[in-house]
Structure formats: C-alpha cells, structure tokens
Amino acid sequence: MDKISDTMKINKAKIYFKNSTNMSDIPSSSINLIITSPPYWTLKDYDNDNQIGLGSNSYEHYIKELNMVWKECIRVLSPDGKICINIMPFLLTGKAARFKRRETRLVLGDIERYMDSTSEMYQFGLYIWDKRKITRFSSFGSYPFPPNIFSTYPYEWITIFSKNGKRDKVSKDIKEKSKLSTKEWQDWAINSIWEMHPASSKREKHPAPFPEEMPKRLIKLYSFYGDSVLDPFLGTGTTAKVALELGRKAFGYELNKEYEPLITKKLSKIKKCVK
C-alpha cells in the first residue's frame, strides 16, 4: 500500500479522501463505469461535517450539490460509459417537509432532469431492487381510517445512464474474458427486478452499505475486463473491492478518512488484479 497525502493506492485501486464535487485527480474520459449510491438528504449521518445532504439548507441545495458530483462524473466518463446510481424514495417529516407533514421525495426524478439537461447523457436502463422478502416494512399514518394511510417503499432503484459516443474497440480476447453466462444474462438483464440480501450496517460499520452482489452484477453487465470503475461515494470500499476481484481497475472518492482502515482491509486481501 502506498499513501500520498489524501491518496491511497492498493493493488490496482486509487482512493482519494476528498470531496467528489472536484475529481481533478482523474483525467477526462478515462473512466468506463461509475457505480454509486449517493447520501440521502438529512436522513443518514456519515460522520463527516462536509457530507452532501447533512445540514443542507434545503432539498434544492442538496440536489445542487449532487449535480456538482454528476457533472464531474460525466467529465471523467468515457464515451458509451455508464453511470449506475442506486437510490430510493425517502420520506421527509417535521421541519424538513415543506408543509410540515409527511412528504415523499423521488430523488430519481431530479437526477434524470439533470442528466437530460447536459445533452451528453441519456437514460439507458432501470432495475428495481425488490426487498419485500428480506426486509420488514411498516407504515401506519391514519390507519385504519382514511385519508392519510402511509405507503411503504420496500424497493430501491438502480438507474443507468449512458454517455453519448462510441467507445474504443475491444480485442476478441478481452471480450471473451468479459463474457456473461446465459444464466447471468437471464437472471440479471431479462429479469430487471433483482432480489439481493442487503449488507449489514453493523458488520460494514457504515450507515447505508450496499451488498457486493450489486456492483458485481453492474460491473459484469456494463464493463469489460481491464476497464476502470469509479465510485464517487465509496464508503467502506465495496465497489472498489468487487471491481478488483473482477479484473477491473478501481477508483474511489470518500470524504470520511475514518473508513481508511476498512477500505485497506477489504482491498489488501485481493491477490489477483488486472495487470
């Protein structure tokens, strides 16, 4: 492992403990795939005063901060590269809600509007992470009487955006190394409703970790062996770990330097990395 100020290098991974609103360490058009789950506005505390969403003056300010990250993601993304964003509806209550009543915010719509406005990105696909069988949800409101019975959201979205343009040619050997099995294609692409066990917050020591299965599927679906994969909200390093295990190069940005030991532990165990 090599450490240079706020940069950590392990195997074929480069991790930057910086704000991803400025990813000047990464050249333009050099990343093939971006996978991430952004922080939620006011709902999760990631133990960093500068995190996006925590303490934002308004929902609009939160979206503006996220858009700064998406702008950098688009800059570093190569032509025909994909951005995969895991997000779910979230509920606002009390002072956070505009009318001081329970309010649902569909962040996905705001992300789509920004991507459409860039003239470089277009919606490529959408998956639904169905959590009904693995997570218990309850919501009451005015139950058992109308009119304010609350609905629940036992699912998350994984939305895929693609950058306009053609990628460089890929050799036959790389294509063969990257080939999906028939079962993977059927289970992941033909069936766009996914069931995956969520990662444990306690075990991961992170308030909102996502399971390794998610980046595994996305990396195999949307990148070739040897490609570069970035997570601008890296957390404890799940995306980088899976990218290295699948023979990709990994890049990540994370504000919270306290996650460094967890990231180091995950990435240092990987023995086979792309040359």
What does this structure look like?
The protein is α/β, with parallel strands linked by helices and 275 residues long. The protein has one domain: Vaccinia Virus protein VP39 (Rossmann fold). The chain is 27% helix and 23% strand. The chain contains eight helices and twelve strands. A ten-stranded mixed sheet has the order 1-2-3-12-11-4-5-9-8-10. It has a two-stranded antiparallel ribbon with strand order 6-7. Strand 2 and strand 3 form a beta hairpin. The chain starts with a strand and ends in a 7-residue tail after the last helix.
Q: Give the C-alpha Rg.
A: 19 Å
- Give the beta-strand count: 12
Q: How many helices does DSSP assign?
A: 8
CATH class value? Alpha Beta
Give the low-pLDDT segments: none
Q: Please provide the ordered H/E string of secondary-structure elements.
A: EEEEHEEEHEEHHEHHEHEH
Strand coverage percent: 15-25%
CATH architecture: 3-Layer(aba) Sandwich
CATH superfamily: Vaccinia Virus protein VP39
* Overall mean pLDDT: 86
**Shape category:** globular
Keywords:
about 25% strand; 8 helices; about 280 residues; two-stranded antiparallel sheet; alpha/beta
Short description:
The protein is an alpha/beta fold and 275 residues long.
Secondary structure layout plus pairing:
Blueprint: E1 2-4, E2 7-10, E3 13-16, E4 31-36, H1 59-76, E5 77-87, E6 90-92, E7 103-105, H2 107-117, E8 121-130, E9 155-163, H3 172-177, H4 182-190, E10 193-194, H5 201-204, H6 213-222, E11 228-231, H7 238-245, E12 249-253, H8 260-268
Parallel strand pairs: 3-12, 4-5, 4-11, 8-10, 11-12
Antiparallel strand pairs: 1-2, 2-3, 5-9, 6-7, 8-9
